[in-house]
Design a protein that fits this description.
Blueprint (H helix, E strand, L loop, with lengths): L3 H4 L5 H14 L5 E2 L11 H12 L12 H11 L11 E4 L2 H12 L5 E6 L3 H9 L3 E6 L10 H7 L4 E7 L11 H14 L2 E5 L19 H6 E6 L12 E4 L3 H13 L6 H13 L2 H23 L14 E2 L9 E3 L2 E3 L2 H10 L3 E2 L1 E2 L9 E4 L4 H16 L3
Parallel strand pairs: 1-12, 3-4, 3-5, 5-6, 6-7
Antiparallel strand pairs: 2-8, 7-8, 9-14, 10-11, 13-14
The structure holds pyridoxal-5'-phosphate.
Length: about 400
């Protein structure tokens, strides 16, 4: 019988929608997939060659739990481009940053301790915190605040039981990016209250305007409390290869993570580790920048199309590959006699009738919106927007 803990969570809806899209495509129905947040570009030759070389060289054993030296060295060096000063021993690698974030919750908080999330949030933070039996406190944001938290509100939300706050910039699902000044204010609150901040920077390469700023780079005090997480899934488009990392100056954090990883995944896949050691050290910035440019173009195109629609409120994306429009103006209206009560109805009708897959905002903690993930080709984006506009124009 399923445990109470397991019953409290749901399968990640991004994978559920992907399964639905694949089933429809198998039936010959052409669907634009704005559902799954995944980079679409081809794997870089350096990564492929190194993976093949690793297989040919019989690389098959477990590595050290924290990851191969060459890889941790490469990640530490890579992070210097964001003014982050980590050494190899401050880095720990795992099978995806998703598992690292969950491990951090287990490593740094006990059941009943508090975690603060901003809503909208990346859906796995929420279910992972439930699995870790943490008390979740939500800081709601909306279009008026540009989906950014108010540091004073963060300060007021922190209690003696609060262990950590998760920051995600560039952000999934809102597409926003915190500016340096905003990060400075958040850092002040974190340092004053001495809680951990997990800074999920998995989309750092997809910062459209200016350079990515890591909160951990601001000063020595925040550096001590920040744990930076990232990985290869988005920057190198190899999500299935499962390679993520955490960086922390706090030895206790790294050793607690090591204990959890050693008893769960053991280590990240060795082939991915070998390939990513080369990726982080050898792939030129201009390669990922090319894709970041395309995603910026996609975001600007979608923003332009959807903001023209009567009643739909959008915040212009500044990074990652997501936009999170408010569609509450359609609630209570009908599409071909079918009532749209909420964002779930909107998204399922858009899939059934408009053949566009998206996700309802409730999955991310905000019921009035829906998420469009646009890490796909520009032509698909143009077609997807056309279909959304046609669909919305038929709502009465
Ligand atoms: N963090 C955010 C905000 C994400 O959107 C994702 C993936 O969608 C991840 C972390 C997990 O990435 P991975 O486990 O592939 O490293």
């Amino acid at each position: 019988m399923e445990s109470i803990r397991s019953k409290k969570i749901t399968s990640s809806s991004t994978f559920v929608i992907n399964k639905k899209v694949n089933e429809l495509r198998k039936k010959g129905i052409d669907v634009i997939n704005f559902g799954l947040g995944e980079s679409h570009f081809k794997i870089h030759k350096i990564i492929k060659d190194e993976a093949i070389k690793a297989i040919k060289n019989d690389k098959r054993r477990y590595t050290r739990v924290e990851g191969a030296d060459t890889l941790r060295d490469a990640i530490a060096k890579y992070l210097t481009k964001y003014n982050l000063r980590y050494g190899k021993n401050d880095i720990i690698v795992d099978a995806g940053s998703k598992h690292i974030i969950f491990s951090l919750m287990l490593a740094l908080a006990d059941p009943g301790d508090e975690i603060i999330l901003q809503a909208p949030y990346w859906l796995s933070y929420y279910d992972q915190a439930k699995l870790a039996q943490l008390k979740i406190k939500i800081l709601k944001t909306n279009e008026e605040s540009n989906f950014k938290i108010d540091p004073d509100e963060l300060d007021k939300t922190i209690t003696k039981k609060t262990r950590m706050f998760i920051l995600n910039s560039p952000n999934n699902p809102a597409g926003i990016v915190y500016k340096k000044k905003e990060l400075e204010k958040i850092a002040e609150v974190i340092v004053d209250n001495r809680i951990y901040i997990i800074s999920d920077e998995i989309y750092s390469e997809f910062t459209y305007y200016g350079k990515h700023v890591s909160i951990a780079s601001l000063n020595e005090e925040i550096e001590k409390l920040a744990i930076v997480t990232g990985g290869a899934s988005k920057s190198y488009a190899i999500g299935g290869w499962r390679l993520g990392f955490a960086a922390s100056k706090d030895k206790e954090v790294v050793s607690a993570l090591e204990k959890i990883i050693s008893n769960t995944t053991s280590c990240a896949p060795i082939i991915s580790q070998m390939a990513c050691a080369k990726a982080f050290s050898k792939i030129n910035d201009s390669y990922v920048k090319k894709w970041a440019k395309l995603y910026k173009k996609n975001g600007e195109y979608i923003y332009k199309c959807l903001s023209k629609l009567d009643g739909m409120k959008c915040v212009k994306p500044e990074g990652a590959y997501y936009i999170f429009p408010n569609i509450s103006c359609f609630f209570g209206k009908k599409y071909k006699n079918k009532l749209i009560k909420n964002a779930e109805d909107f998204c399922s009708l858009l899939l059934e009738e408009g053949r566009v897959a998206t996700l309802p905002g409730g999955d991310f903690g905000i019921k009035e919106n829906f998420r469009i993930a646009y890490g796909i080709s520009h032509n698909e984006v143009i077609e997807g927007c056309k279909r959304i506009v046609d669909f919305v124009n038929k709502i009465r």
